[in-house]
Amino acid sequence: MAEKIMIVDDDVDTLRLVGYMLQRQGFQIVAANNGQQAISMAENESPDLILLDIMMPEIDGYEVTRRLRANKTTADIPIIMFSAKGQVEDKVMGFEVGADDYLTKPTQPRELIAHIKAVLARTKRSKPPAGPSDKAPEERGFIMGVIAVRGGLGVSTLALNLSVAIHEEMKKEVILADFRPGQGTIALDLGYLRAEGLNQLIQRKPAEITSRDIGKEIFSHPSGIRLLLSSHRPSDAKFAAYGDHFEAITSQLSVMAKYIVLDLGTALPPAIEGVLKFCDQLVLVVEPVPQTLMQSKLMIDELFALGFGEARLQIVLINRTRSGVQLSWSQAQDQLGHAISVIFTPAPELAYQSTVNNVPILIQQPDSLTAQQFFKLVEKVTIKPG
Description:
Blueprint: E1 4-8, H1 12-24, E2 28-32, H2 35-45, E3 49-52, H3 61-70, E4 79-83, H4 88-97, E5 101-104, H5 109-123, E6 142-148, H6 155-170, E7 174-178, H7 185-189, H8 197-202, H9 211-217, E8 219-220, E9 226-228, H10 243-253, E10 259-266, H11 270-276, E11 281-286, H12 290-305, E12 313-318, H13 329-336, E13 342-344, H14 348-357, H15 361-364, H16 369-381
Parallel strand pairs: 1-2, 1-3, 3-4, 4-5, 6-10, 6-11, 7-9, 7-10, 11-12, 12-13
Antiparallel strand pairs: 8-9
Helix pairs in contact: 2-3, 6-16, 10-11
């Protein structure tokens, strides 16, 4: 059955044009031209997603969202705010009242469709089947991304050891996916000289990528986690712009394990922004250096505008050297203006031995202080699936 989308806008032309465009994409459409009508229709129609304007008379989109979230019947309906109000403050307010996504008018049809599909995929609002079925609904796993403003901060090392720590602590399946084609250091760190899994999937059309295809490219590591690795050939960096593929792969991964860890690399390119919508948690890696902290603070502001509030964002400080010229954790926290969840103390010798032996740090020295810090991070970023 086609997914039902409710469009809420006081502009009749917008209702007509957007509705027609979504119908052509196979969606079922219902429309409301004011806030009060939207609230009533949401309860009666039970749409799969609401596309909501903000600037409407009497009851604006912010208040509509507040009321929908306060009503048990409508509290879980995904909401995308679609408005000409494009300031960061407007977006932050939208996310604070409960929006799942925020788009600024005008936008390209492809972008609107992509956002709608991403939110639908992430929320997985499944309705009960009309009749009895022997097939159980697929359960969505818990997805977390690891990212930094620039390279060399230890993103891949953290993603790898975090995955191992989650597997050991939670006793559940964990898939680690390296989304950095052309820069796949996880494969090299583990001694895999040929890592073509992600490349093989990217050569397919996004709509044709299935969990079966991904399963063929994933292999098990002795630590117990499963790996989808990227190539380390520099020329393969061209695949980093294939955002539709990354979203399709992430959507399929979400039902293949209890926990999915994504190595998202650096910065916020468009391809990675699309993947962020699937992430339940995001780990931002920083270092105690003023310039890096300045960039990281800008990234935090941008992540907040994309919907990653304090509850979905964990900041990890990694001290890679014992140099006295670095800032203290309290100074770093003050410069960021946000709390740091976990601090990793310098362990260059351990990191070196881990790389030489092609094993994660947790396996190289499971009783080390660094290992304890990874388990502390597990407590911060995970929830136990039911």
